[in-house]
Design goal:
single chain; 554 residues; alpha/beta; seven-stranded parallel β-sheet; 34% helix; ETF_a/FixB; Rossmann-like_a/b/a_fold; flavin adenine dinucleotide binding; Electron transfer flavoprotein subunit alpha/FixB family protein
């Protein structure tokens, strides 16, 4: 039995765990466990790639002068060239790549290494040449520089940063599930961080709204050490400017390098948060970009995995000297799925010699992390943050609006009924039939593919309210993992797969038996959704759905 059971982990959590496993037999045992249980293709691919890497290392080091580049992945090429210090060998590799696979990313890796090596050679025997820093306003004097007018941009270097801040979104008076998921993950990350670095940094929950104080006990129960909230009756709906101004004012409260005249605060003695985490909901995406832009730092959007590790960087713009390497500590690694659904890109927010990039910020796809168990016995510090709000921020008044009774958070449902472009022959009837099936279940809701959201379909008024971006499932929408996911008229594009492939059971309805969704569905019903959905609804209402699911895995 291997030490790590892959079926207990999400792929984003598993990647960092297996990178230090050097026993191919243990990896094969993990692969067997995955195949006999969850059988997730991305997880199997991850383990198989690690097996290949371990076995290639066992066979001896790769000789860059003789290796067949067609046998290497881009990642293999990147790892290999890091150890090559001969520019001529690297140029030969580059020519062989161009004549063979001609992969853009592989060529870029080799070219970057050539630049690093030649920079090192130029510096041999003398002090390494530092990269010249020219402020943007001097380098490009003819361009406008709006960042110069930002009240928060200070261009700090070497300031003090602490804590992980979590923006906790509420909707219709309720703390949304993704807020609880992020708090649980932040608690896990900061507990490990404090052990690793012998620190005592906190999880800070930020609440903004007309009823912010109502949620203080909940966010502490889900993992916060400190709650900073601002409550105002004018904040009942999300508004870009006041929410951004409030968050940034909180982030810059107190601190040794605070702006002149700003009063110190007992609850925060550092300059800015070390990390900020937001939900990748519609409002959360807006706020995260606005806050990180106002604080003049970076943002990794739509992440599905987070972990904190040191990072070795050789980019001259980051280390300050061509050819040098530098280890950056306490870096938030922000993982997000790429368009294939099988690989993850890891985004880092790294300082420059003349510029700090903090806080390191991420927005998190709902459903990416497990829902923690609340502990209402936990204690936490609470700050009622006082701040005068400018009346000009509220010039637009919303006098009337409708709210869907089912809400827009799809992550907590037992069943999701999702429809795609297959409804195109009669869009209104397609939505009606999907809603009928939703209503037949005890705990279900309606999801949509991006194709429906971006289409020019005309819907009758009584269903038009359901066709909103909030219901979109996929890489640019919500990620869900219900007990049952019913995909009607959805082809199975990889962007949609990312949002639903962790569901326990996927039932696809499609007229095309070779549609891509077949590859990751448990059941494929070949047929017209307009005929199949009513039958499924009837089967649910009569308790016969189990019998209808007795279909061949083929």
């Amino acid at each position: 039995m291997p030490e790590i059971d892959p079926t207990d982990h999400e792929i984003a959590e598993l990647g960092p765990k297996i990178k230090d496993i050097d026993d191919a037999d243990e990896l094969r045992a993990m692969l067997d466990l995955e195949e006999s249980d969850e059988n997730r293709v991305p997880v199997k691919t991850l383990i198989e790639d690690r097996i290949d890497k371990v076995e290639s290392e066992d066979d001896g080091e790769i000789d860059p002068e003789t290796v067949d580049l067609s046998d290497l992945t881009v990642a293999d090429v990147a790892n290999m060239v890091r150890e090559v210090d001969d520019a001529d060998v690297l140029r030969d590799l580059l020519e062989r790549e161009k004549a063979g696979e001609d992969r853009k990313t592989a060529k870029s890796q080799i070219e970057s290494r050539i630049e690093s090596v030649e920079g090192t050679k130029e510096a041999e025997g003398e002090e390494a040449t530092a990269v010249e820093y020219v402020p943007p306003e001097e380098k490009y004097p003819d361009l406008d520089h709006p960042t110069n007018d930002k009240q928060w941009v200070e261009g700090t270097v070497g300031a003090e940063y602490r804590d992980m801040w979590v923006y906790c979104e509420t909707q219709a008076g309720e703390l949304v599930d993704v807020s609880k998921e992020m708090l649980g993950k932040a608690r896990e990350l900061m507990d490990a961080y404090n052990d690793e670095y012998d620190e005592s940094e906190r999880v800070v929950a930020v609440l903004i709204g007309a009823d912010a104080s109502d949620h203080v006990e909940d966010v502490i129960a889900y993992g916060a050490d400190l709650v900073v909230y601002h409550e105002d009756p004018r904040l009942g709906r999300f508004r870009h400017q006041p929410y951004t101004e409030i968050f940034c004012d909180m982030a810059r409260a107190g601190g040794e390098l605070a702006a002149e005249g700003r009063e110190s605060v007992e609850w925060k003695e550092y300059h800015e948060p070390r990390y900020t985490v937001f939900p990748a909901t519609n409002n959360g995406r807006d706020l995260s970009a606005l806050v990180q832009g106002e604080l003049d730092s970076g943002l990794a959007s739509d992440c599905s995995g987070l972990y904190i590790e040191n990072a070795m960087i050789s980019n001259p713009a980051k280390v300050g000297t061509a050819g040098d390497k530098k280890e950056f500590e306490r870096v938030l690694h922000m993982k997000r799925p790429d368009f294939s659904g099988f690989e993850y890109s890891t985004i880092l927010c790294i300082d420059k010699p003349n510029r700090d990039f903090h806080p390191q910020g991420a927005s998190v796809i709902p459903g990416s992390f497990e829902m923690p168990d609340p502990d209402f016995e936990r204690n936490g510090e609470v700050v009622d943050y006082e701040m005068a709000l400018d009346d000009d921020w509220f010039n637009v008044e919303v006098e009337e609006f409708d709210r869907l009774s089912g809400g827009v958070d799809l992550t907590g449902n037992d069943v999701i009924v999702a429809v795609g472009r297959g409804i195109g022959d009669d869009p209104t009837r397609g939505i009606e039939q999907a809603i009928d099936l939703v209503d037949a279940f005890d705990d279900a809701d309606l999801g949509l593919s991006r194709g429906v959201i971006t289409s020019s379909y005309s819907f009758d008024g009584h269903v038009e309210q359901y066709v909103t971006e909030e219901r979109q499932i996929g890489e640019s929408g919500q990620a869900v993992e219900p007990d049952v996911y019913i995909a009607a008229g959805i082809s199975g594009a990889i962007q949609h797969k990312v949002g639903c492939d962790e569901s326990d059971t996927i039932i696809a309805i499609n007229t095309d038996p070779d549609a891509d969704i077949r590859d990751f569905s448990d059941y494929l019903i070949e047929g017209d959704l307009f005929e199949v959905l009513p039958q499924l609804t009837e089967a649910v209402e009569t308790g016969e759905l189990g019998a209808m699911m007795e279909a061949s895995d083929d």
